[in-house]
């Protein structure tokens, strides 16, 4: 309990660093610690804070954020993905997908077996195709699919032959995913993604939740391409999106 109080104080301090007249902390989602959950995935607080023209998607975990990444297998098929996720009530159209495609979520991911940010060279080594293990951000659209297990979720597939609207930074995978290269920091217990407010169409207050989960690329590489295979923690406990963003 003392540790949780300390982390809640860290969340308050994060908000307190922002000038009082220039930020809105909205309504965060607090979650009880659970020793049965890996410390790096045990959510204590999820929040979305607005300061000026930016939204700060902030998650605090009990352990060291980003401490564990999937083991490399040497193949895309079957590859594992680790993630910190903020499911939102935002419509998929605000970031450039077709309207009403599913649950629009901001995700921070690591996956050593493939790189889905082909426009960006995150490690600065001159090769934009070898950075998948480095934590990075995405917008994804999540939908239910029994092919991912009973009650399972996947990143929505793009059917073969269809060319739906996608954002300019879509990484040309057959799923509704965007790779916008937002500023990202994982430090201590904190995961923080800085999202320009106009990147979500200047949306007023929206609902959100916090999730830590594993995903896996399907062996067939399509339909489904990427399933959620293991949820570690849901901040609300029931994915009810009780958080309210600053606005």
Quick recap:
The chain contains one helix and 15 strands; from the N terminus they run H-E-E-E-E-E-E-E-E-E-E-E-E-E-E-E.
Explain this structure:
A hairpin with a 2-residue loop joins strand 3 and strand 4. It is built from one helix and 15 strands; from the N terminus they run αβββββββββββββββ. Strands 5, 6, 7, 8, 9, 13 and 14 form a seven-stranded antiparallel sheet that branches. Strands 1, 2, 3, 4, 10 and 11 form a six-stranded antiparallel sheet that branches. The protein is globular and about 40 Å long. It has one helix at 2-16, and strands spanning 23-24, 29-30, 43-51, 54-61, 80-87, 103-110, 136-144, 153-155, 177-178, 183-187, 190-196, 207-208, 211-217, 226-234, 243-244. It has one domain. The chain is mainly beta and 247 residues long.
